[in-house]
């Protein structure tokens, strides 16, 4: 699959009272055509600055941004304007014109780009249909719910027929149910129109539901990245684990862990693919002198598969427990020892 977005050693600095702030620090990333990639991080990590570097709303201090192999940082204003049409963007607060109808919110930018009346009309109707909002054509933004406003913004972005859609916290102002319906819409756009999506978010649920590939960002750096399945099964960094613990039931309280550690170890086992079908726990108690006791179990549905999560208390002496853990590791099961902290 060909690469559509490539960031090479991108750094963005801002001057501040106390010297320079490096909002983005030497970031590399590569998005293949047709994929959905997500950048997750806490507030201040540099996510907004990073995504704004992709369409050069922020000009990188150094490094290169390639769209379809073309270096955006070297383009003239005119060329940049043209290439930007290939990149749509949606925002947390929708950015709709309050005094224009739904129809005009989509039509006005198209008219400014020089499309004639019939082409404008055709596109507005086509994309309102895709976002399931044809019936609200003549409404004004103030008459719409948050989810409906985001649908208008998505239709407006799509009406310019971009190859890439950038999403800057597009679901952060929405309730969980509306968030889900907007994420379903983004999946549909990706699958049916083949549009590549790069999004930023602070919600792990967004990553879980729609992303193929994930970047964890902190202090301007990408501290960990991988396929969504890899990140959910084998997280390395503390920040990644903290984000994963925001997915329901993944976290166990320190109190419970400290009690259980008195006679054994508490482990999270993560299953994916082949390892899901094996009766591993009964094998553990047969082959090692340990007793596995299930504390919590759940499955997490990702865009590209299902990950099983099992938290167990392994009761036994340390040596036997360590041999059992080594055995689990060999069986392609992710094993994370949970410590009280
Ligand atoms: P995030 O989107 O992850 O919350 P931002 O990209 O908004 O992070 O900000 C990253 C860092 O860069 C923060 O420390 C922020 O204060 C700083 N920053 C962002 N934009 C500017 C700006 N225009 N001028 C000065 N500092 C900025």
Quick overview:
The protein is of the alpha/beta class and 341 residues long. The chain is 35% helix and 31% strand.
Textual characterization of the structure:
The chain is an alpha/beta fold and 341 residues long. It has 12 helices and 14 strands. The protein has helices at 47-54, 77-84, 102-112, 117-130, 146-158, 176-193, 204-210, 228-233, 238-244, 254-260, 280-287, 318-330; strands spanning 3-16, 19-32, 36-40, 62-67, 70-71, 87-91, 164-168, 196-201, 213-218, 221-227, 264-271, 291-302, 305-315, 334-338. The longest helix has 18 residues, at 176-193. It binds adenosine-5'-diphosphate (ADP). Adenosine-5'-diphosphate binds next to strand 1, strand 2 and helix 1.
